[in-house]
Amino acid sequence: MELWDRFLNWRNRMVMSRDFRQWAARFPFTRPIARRQSAELFDICSGFVKTQTLLASVRSGLLSAMREDARTYPELMAATCLPADSLDRLLGAACALKLVSKRSCGRYGLGSLGPAVIGDPGILAMIEHNAVFYRDIADPVKLLSGAATSTELQRYWAYSGNEAASELDESDVGQYSTLMAESQRMVAAEILAAYPVGKHDWLLDVGGGQGAFVTAAGNAVADIRLSVFDLPAVAERATMQVAGAGLGDRFQAFGGDFLTDDLPAGPDLVSLVRVLHDHDDAEALGLLRNIRRSVNPGTVLLVAEPMAGVRESSAVGDVYFGFYMLAMGRGRVRTPREIRKMLSQTGFAETRLIPTNTPVITQMIAATA
Asked: From 345's CA, which of 80, 137, 187, 244 has a CA 20 to 30 Å away?
């Protein structure tokens, strides 16, 4: 056993002792560490309550009532329809989480985190969607052991594990396609800020849903040709959505199964935005091989999604999406090293990690065929 391991084992034995923890909280040199770690541990323990406070602040209309200006207490009572004691409780919790802040003359307004929540439809959509996810992980050990044979997320994502996914209709794909489109806008902004899409002539977004990313790219880059390849029912929605954004003359949707069907030939930029982690290793490798087989040498592939083992976003990649993929029933969050290895295995010659402005939203890898 290495010296460092022995030290860590000794440290753990000491911290397990209540007497030691009480001493560390009193001793001036260890007090800051003890307080910080106590706060971090309680933050983990209280995490679910914080998410429910956020959900209540959204669903009750508390945050939306403050969108334009601070509100008085009677105005908030009218907006939320909550009794006084419940409103007091919610306001106290929302203030503690910086969703709300106290203002002058007894009014309340949005706190430092509130504007981003209420101003981004994608965040609001994910807050509502998390209610489905949290029901699936109510018994995490059951989920981890494989005893949970059916989950709400499996039913929500209708294509997950569905061998007849290409036969899904509008009623099957509508709900999840809308969620993807709403939440993908902030991911699209990160990609476009980090990578010069404008140097390419034709962007093909594989698994691109309703076209949120190609719409953002088309608005940012004049004259670039835009395409989405997704399930037939989803491709139809993309055609309508992109046309509605005024980009229909540059857009073409292709319907099919990207794991087995041929992809369009000719694009010089292909994107996988939050797609690869939806699939187990065998399917993910098959998808990458299909893309490599379909594109010309020199074509760039962008993989943008949450990744594991990234220090700046470990709570997202390793924790949130780690369990989300488990509840979904397939796929996993991979490290950048794992993704780059898969790209090399499937014939991509060059791979590089591209820094993004907000790693907690997405990380990105570019590969050249």
From this structure: 187
